[in-house]
UniProtKB/TrEMBL annotation:
Segments forming domain MATH: 76-207
Biological source species: Podospora australis
Name under which the protein is recorded: ubiquitinyl hydrolase 1
Start and end residues of each USP domain: 233-551
EC number(s) per entry: 3.4.19.12
Keyword vocabulary terms for this entry: Hydrolase, Protease, Thiol protease, Ubl conjugation pathway
Gene Ontology CC annotation, any one: cytosol
Gene3D superfamilies cross-referenced by the UniProt entry: Apoptosis, Tumor Necrosis Factor Receptor Associated Protein 2, Chain A (2.60.210.10), Cysteine proteinases (3.90.70.10), Phosphatidylinositol 3-kinase Catalytic Subunit, Chain A, domain 1 (3.10.20.90)
MF (Gene Ontology): cysteine-type deubiquitinase activity
Catalytic activity: Thiol-dependent hydrolysis of ester, thioester, amide, peptide and isopeptide bonds formed by the C-terminal Gly of ubiquitin (a 76-residue protein attached to proteins as an intracellular targeting signal)
Pfam families, sorted: MATH_2 (PF22486), UCH (PF00443), USP7_C2 (PF14533), USP7_ICP0_bdg (PF12436)
Highest taxon in the source lineage: Eukaryota
Amino acid sequence: MDGIHNIEAASPNAMMLDQPEEEHISIVEPNTTDPEDVAEINADSAVPPRPLVTDYEAMRDLILPPLQEEPPILEDKVSTWEIQGFRAMNKKERGPVFQAGGYPWRILLFPHGNNSSDQCSIYLEHGYEPNDVPENWSCCVQFSLVLWNPNDPSIWFHHTAHHRFTKEESDWGFTRFLEARKMFNVAWENSNRPIVENDAANITAFVRVVEDETGVLWHNFNHYDSKKETGYVGLKNQGATCYLNSLLQSLYFTNAFRKAIYGIPTQQNESMDDSAYTLQRLFYQLQTSPVAVSTNELTKSFGWEQKHIFEQQDVQELSRKLMEQMENKMKGTESERVLPQMFSGEVKTYISCVNVPYESSRTEEFWDIQLNVSGQKNLLDSFQDYIQVERLEGQNQYAAGDDYGNQDADKGVIFLRFPDVLHLQLKRFEYDMMRDLMLKINDRYEFPEEFDASQFLSKDVDRSESWEYQLHGVLVHSGDLNAGHYYAFMKPEKEGWWYKYDDDKVTKATRREVLEENFGGPYKTNRGQLVQKKPEAMRPNSAYMLVYIRKSRLDKILCPVTAADAPAHLQRRFEEEHAAREAKRKEREEQHLYLGVKAITEVTFQAHGGTDLANFEATSDEPGAPRYYRFLRTAPVQEVVNWVANDLGLSPNRVRLWAMVNRQNKTIRPDQPVMDFTQTVEEAYSRATAHRDPALRVWVEVAEEVNADGVAVWPAYPGLPNGAVVKNDLILLFLKWFDVEAQCLKGVGHVYVSKEKKVEELFPIIMKKMGWEKLGSDEKLMLWEEIKPNMIDPLKSKITLKSAELQDGDIICFQRVTPEKKSRLGHGDKQSSDETAKSGDRYEDAREYYDFLLNKRTVSFRAHPSKCDGELYPAFDMVLNTKINYDKLCEKVGEKLGVDPTHFRFYTVNASSGNPRTHVKRGNQSLFSILSPPGYGPLNMNQMNNALYFEVLDMSLTELESKKTIKLTWVSEGISKEEQVDVLVAKNGQLEDLIESLVRKLKIPSEEEAGRIRVYETSNHKFYRELERSYPVISINDYTTVIAERVPAEDADVTRDEQNQYISCFHFQNEPSRGHGIPFKFLVKAGERFADTKRRLEARTGIKGKSFEKIKFAVVRRANFSRPQYLNDDDILWEVAQNSDDSLGLDHPDRSRTLRNGAGDLFLKG
């Protein structure tokens, strides 16, 4: 190659920019190229001669190779800059301006290097003056810069690149164009002269301006606006939902489908759990939103959790389930038949005798067609393969009944009707038997823009209307089976542009991008006779789903859909939501102008049952929550007083605000009244020292008396006529009552008391406040000071308030006690934490109750979803002291549920999924350590600290630990009914013991009463082995699925020697590798026609009616696992399944929602 491989095409402005175009040139510069990359020359051809730089045509063919995007060429231009005194040039030089494509260009040269003194740097830049560049100007250019000896044009060196030049990215080229040591005084390779001779050199720019057909050729997509550029918006990717996005865009641009979805009646149920409503919302937003739309509402209505968002699902299955869901939503409406008419067709499976008039056939409805890619060149070949006729002759003759006997026959399928919108699923993923895994097929596979489908229809089908189809959409997968990306190409209108929908980005697309680039196969190689040693590079992207529309129905399917077609209630809802968002936006923008005020009133204090005067973090609907107001920061405090007074129904003259402050002990108490009503709210806020709340916190005092002029009389901090504030000896105290009988704290109110008074002088004040005439003869009042939540100190009655160090804002808690209780409580003595924790639900002592408040937690208890009956034991919440131990927790829950406390097992809860985690080991740990385990790590961080699952055991936990739990699936009614059950068996038991325990657990008839029970293991939905009755329980594999069933009546008399008459059966969907359901053993009878076998299978499986009729049966051989042999009614299963490892496959959709290998099957709930 004529350049250095690692030279970067770049701008001199040190930006993140493109790599240079690789050049496939037959001449390779020595010492710079990896030998593995050298191309071989065909033996029959000679090495082409190296052209002279002055031979522009030859040079262009050599140094400007075809571009992968194949854009149309607008103009080729060559310009040469002749340089004298190369080494004497300035650090930065520009060549003469020349025109190409109607725009000015020039060469930018750093002769001594750009940030690299050992290199020469050369770039191409546009020739506009800085202020003359047109707004939104861009030009796509492929160019090559050639440095050459002016005395010998055979001595040259070049680099090639392509770039989208814009006002922001004005230059592009090569910072490391050529090492300076190779330029001067050193003979250039295969010559005796240097490339720069006598300090002179020429630089020639070969410039090829190409057409930017789509407006995004080589675009970096910075500040790209899909709506502005295309008129359409994309869908946001939630994690791995690109497959969903591509399907949704395909359905959205099937306009008749969109209109049908709008027609689903949702006005009576605008629920975000309704997938029809959320799909309507999604389509409406795609139609009206200026930015990419989120699919969160839709996936939530499907019932998908976070884990489903990061699992890529099968698009065909998703499409079918979504169609089925919407079809159900349309039942009973005018649109009931719209979807089947639009998307469903009919195909006939037949066996037709060649020589006699006898045919067996079955007609089925289809919503999409799966076509083979492997071994096929194009779409039409796949259709021919699909309807290929197999001749049954010789030993394989068809049994045509008693009238005709065995006959030569043709077996195949033929289409009876194609839908208006034809969904074709290309089987790009197939099972590789040798590797035992699914692989992506990257072979080249072509599909046309138009094709005539009539050639694949039965000859009896009406052809009066054309069956020609036009390509409408191409859904693409890029990557391999394990990691890939999905996007779609759609043609929204009958005539017009194609567009690429790549998640949130929408761009115009060329016909080549839609077709050629998605055929798959190897990349195109450059022309010439070079043969690469390395294997061909395969395209990672290829079409996997095609959408065709019948040409005669294009106007019907692509009918105009406007915003007015959306349901009126939907439009109103979005207008309301838009107005709400605008109001919130305005509120956020103006938020800095406002300040919140949280006010404690007498009413909120009385409703507050916790520590301090209020919980400032409480929400407005909680009892005791402070009232919240919002004022301009510049508003005077008087305005706050007026507003609060009006809210309380009082005169502003009777209201005074006290500023709340954070004390050093982390409590929040009133400090002093706000006396200056002219100051602003912000000034009052800033004067409240050490505040941690973004709002001004106040206590609202209401005057109990006024003077003759209606002015409030305040006991403390009265304002004098001259504006001065005087502090007297009265202190403000708040009173709380611990109601022993009700087991709660109640705010009583506030009092002013002289600090010189004794504590016992508070007694009559409290009696009056409470309306108590007198205490009982054996009762006393006990007083405590609430210093902080974990410091509740008793007050001695004989000391003064001053000696007790009481001050404004302190809280006194009181309670009534009898002498016996007082003696038992030990007034003045502190209980140990253990004693507090051991106490029951009733607290006799305020300090005990405060300790409970400090450690209480509301814990949610839920029955284990798979191990406990949620209907028998409904969920409940309990307020518990986190100091209690495991046994005490069992007692509390047992008392609540009426269950023996020894029969509980608890499970912690995963914070992300809400699912049960491991069970809690019994021990002496506290509830706090159970909910919040000590230590710091991912496991502990991902645990909910306020919830537990519980399991009610059939025995004590101690007995349980001596047994083994067998996870078993009990199947009944054939295999149509499954019941998951955990069976406990002694670890030294046998299978017999397991069966006996199962009978007791399920309360089903014993084997003597209803017949023998057999137990077998399955793996990956395939039958593995039947277990012997004496099999030890301890050896049952934990990694297989254990199934138990009642032995069918027809199997009851089969002896051990006749076991080879059984065939293993399993369920799959489309591909045998996609197993599901419960596998089973089935008795095969010699000479039985499969029509009769199916009747037995219906009884054996318990699948009835239409569900059974939709099942297709196939013999699946291990040697050819990916190509099942489907059976007809006249086949003999005994003869078709001749090998011991042959299986009978039941091909039908998987409708289960069970968890497999930790990942959920695709399901749509809404």
